[in-house]
Each structure stands twice: as C-alpha cells, then as structure tokens.
Design brief:
Elements lengths: L1 H4 L13 E4 L4 H12 L3 E6 L5 H14 L3 E6 L9 H4 L4 E4 L12 H22 L5 E5 L35 H18 L5 E7 L1 E3 L10 H8 L8 E3 L5 E3 H13 L5 E5 L6 H12 L8 E3 L1 H11 L5 H7 L9 H7 L6 H14 L5
Parallel strand pairs: 1-2, 1-4, 2-3, 4-5, 5-6, 6-10, 7-9, 8-11
Helix pairs in contact: 2-3, 2-8, 5-6, 9-13, 10-11
The structure holds NADP nicotinamide-adenine-dinucleotide phosphate (NAP).
NADP nicotinamide-adenine-dinucleotide phosphate (NAP) binds next to helix 2 and strand 7.
Length: about 375
Amino acid sequence: MTKMMDRVMEQTIDKTKPILVTGASGYIANWIIKYLLEEGCTVHGTVRDLNSEKSVGPLRKIEADAARGKLKLFKADLLDQGSFDEAMQGCEVVIHTASPFLVRGFTDPEQALIKPAVEGTRNVLEAVNRTDSVKRVVLTSSVAAIFGDNADLKKNARGYFTEEDWNFSSSVDHQPYSYSKFLAEKEAWKIHDAQSRWHLVTINPSMVGGPALTQYSQSTSIDTLRSLGNGKLWPGVPRMRLGWVDVRDVARAHVEAAFRPDAEGRHIVSNGEPTMLEVATILKNHFGSKYKFPFFELPKRIVKWFGWVLDSSAKPRFVEQNVGHELKFDNSRSKARLGLQYHPLEQTFVDHFQQLIDDGMIR
Ligand code: NAP
C-alpha cells in the first residue's frame, strides 16, 4: 500500500470499455451492476452457474429495467485458476466482489471461507496481471479486515476505527469470516505492491442492509435483518452494536471508486453503529406489533452461556468480546474521497424489511 502512495494518482478510466464484476449474482453486485448499466456501461459479470435461473434471471431483469448499457455473463469459479481471464479481456476496471459471506452453517472454515476468499483473490489478481488492459481493481473488502471484535476498540488510542487499522484478533477458530476478509485484503495489497500497472482501491463496508434486487439472495445480510422480525430473536436480543450501511451506498461507493481519477486506498463505508434493540425499535415503530420484534436486552451472562444454542456463531468467546462493547467507525474518507451521501439508516431498515414482506420472506 505504501508504494501506491508514491505514485501519480490521477488515472483516467475509459467508460466505453467493459467493466468486470465478479460474483455478479450477489446482493451487493446486483446493485453495482444496476448502477453501471444505468450509466450506459458494458458490464462483464461472472457467475458460477450460467444455467441457474436464481443467479441469471434477476440479472436479466436488472438489465431490462436499466434500459441502457449491456450485460454479458461468463462462468467463473474462485477456485478455478484462469477462469476469470476470458471475462476480463478488454476491461480497464475489475470490481471483485465474489467471496463467500457466511457466519454459520459450515463445519470447515478453511474450506468454506478462507480458501475461496484468499485463493479467489489471488486467482483474480493473477488474471489482472496477465491482462494488459486493466488499470484499476476495486476490491470488496470489509470492516472485518479492519477490526475483529468490538472489544478491540479498547486498544485503539483514537477511540474509533479508521482505514489505518487492521484486524488483529480473528483467526480460523474465532471469527473465521472476518479472518478470511483480512487475509484476502492483505493478499490483494501484496500482489498490488509487486507491480506498477494497476491501482487497487478497497471498499470496506460494515453490515450491509437495504432492499435486495432478488428474493433469492443468500447473503448473511438478508438473514440478519429477517431474524429481527421473524421471531428468531424474540423476545430479547444481546446488547450488541453492529456497523450498518445501505446496500445502495455500498454499490455507489464501488462505482465512484471505479471512475474517480484520484480514487486510491481503503474506504470504510459505514453509517452508524446501532444496537440490535435500536434496529428492532426502528422496525417496530414503522411496522407495528404485527411482527415479533425483540423488545428488551438480555443479560450478557445468559447470552454467553446459552446464545450458541440458538446461534452456532455466538460462542462464549464471541459473546465476551462483542456483547456490551462500544463500536465506532470513521467514515469521513468515504465522504471526502468518493463523495458518498449516506441514506439514513432508518430508511435502510424500513426499505429492507418492506422488501422482505413484499417477497414473502417475512410473514
Ligand atoms: P452474496 O450475496 O452471498 O454474494 C456472494 C457472491 O460470491 C455470490 O455472487 C457468489 O456467486 C460468489 N461466490 C461465492 N463463492 C464463490 C466461488 N467459489 N466462486 C465464484 N463466486 C463465488 O454476498 P454479498 O453480501 O453480496 O457479499 C459480496 C461481497 O461483499 C463479499 O466479498 C463480502 O465479503 C462483502 N461484504 C459483504 C457485507 C454484507 O454485509 N453483505 C459486508 C462487508 C463486505 P454465485 O452466486 O455464482 O455462487
């Protein structure tokens, strides 16, 4: 990352050239592709299965609704070496979003998360090294690459996380998803720093909310908001803060990072750190008592010893290091350098919950 700072930053991107978006069927990627098409761009999107209606159908609808731009789909898997080469031909910008986002439901974190995140990033960036047209890579990293547990903030002299911070507390056994994002971003900077043709810009979102463009989205984001209204977290929730941001702002950040001539470095993209009860209260105030929103905070000792029974990711160490701790991010760089104007979080949660109702995902 240091080498990059020494370079001339201004870099013009030709918007008439195709732009590659990996993991095109994902929750965030769908919105990125929508915005790129609305700008009239040609998008090359990769999916694992070109015959999957759940992946491809919503993308075709996004293309039709945009009524501008052009979307061409390619098959690619993070673990297949060379599988991104064809889709990358002629592209000046590569937006790499593909990576598994799972916090539960797997037995081997190395295979489920770390291998696809790290080897996938390496595969995509090795393809970038082989493709002379590429000038810029925008990587969807995460605040998970910046911090591991909320308790880490106590060791932070500023009292809030910035782009200068790196996750020092996650491992294969503790917060493996966060560890996968930390390792993948480190690997990306390492490969970037070994060459001088292309620039790397990272987008580091907190938990993403807001309406999905498909009811088939598998992102953990969808499950997180749904669990606040489907009774899974009723009647009480842990006193836990999460960083949240609107999916539309995250997508906009990628598009700005792709085209702004001076885009460089890391960007925390996050718009507040409400507690789970605060989120539930916003939803309850808007949607009323028809849904089973939690209405009180559980004592930490109860969550610590019984939380994992309800949620396999809520192991005692996770609870100890995250429940009852403060959390704060500095998002000023995303506003200053990418021009982001964030949606109010209330709108994010309300629009998202309404979409879950409309799509029959909450009853
Ligand atoms: P998502 O809807 O689950 O999308 C993940 C995408 O990754 C899918 O399109 C999937 O492709 C692709 N993928 C997974 N394993 C793959 C593999 N082996 N080969 C090729 N593609 C693979 O999740 P999302 O929320 O949009 O997340 C997108 C990115 O944002 C991820 O890098 C995630 O870490 C990051 N992020 C998400 C959040 C959040 O709260 N959602 C916050 C911070 C960062 P197929 O559909 O083709 O299988």
